[in-house]
Amino acid sequence: MNRKRLVRFFGASLIAAGIAVAAVSGLKWKNGLEAVKPLSVEIERQTGAAPMQIQSSLYPKQPKIGEQIGELIIPKLNMSLAIYHGTDENELEKGVGHYAGSVLPGEADNCVLSGHRDTVFRRLGEVGQGDILIVRTSAGTFTYKVRKVRIVDADDRTVIVPKPKATLTVSTCYPFRYVGPAPQRYVLVANLINDRS
């Protein structure tokens, strides 16, 4: 009799623990989704202004997915890489991708660029804190200084959240020599230090 009660108690405990883990995971997932809302959605929530009414003074026209929007210059590596609007495989095969949910280079907030570790960003690990990144677009030339290097999990969405000032976030898969889908991301976080429009 005691054995049956013990088995039932143990079974009920496992079910309760499973429900608790699912609830916590669900909350983390929900919070993660909220963290990646585009800034325009947050502005709309706070001000009541529709995102379409907010236009950039730097870029009067939004680029189309697949369109080249500029170039990323990495002086330390003596490299100049084309930047394409979008981060699908089509854009990443051609060069560096600009995450369409982020602002364009030079704008206040977080401009997110990504590239493959085995093509355009093969040597990105050589770039670190204090190094310079330059972005040239139709709106001007924007110089950023790397403030921080982060290594995060592949599913970490904090790299695309809004920032209080003009920031350039550059990411690629990590470790660089990993075979197969890499479990982490190498992330450079850089602040705008000057612009020549």
UniProtKB/TrEMBL annotation:
Pfam families per UniProt: Sortase
Keyword entries, A-Z: Hydrolase
NCBIfam families attached to this UniProt entry: class_D_sortase, sortase_fam
Gene3D superfamilies per record: Sortase
Superkingdom, natural source: Bacteria
Species for this entry: Geobacillus thermoleovorans CCB_US3_UF5
Signal peptide start-end: none
The name this protein goes by in its record: Sortase
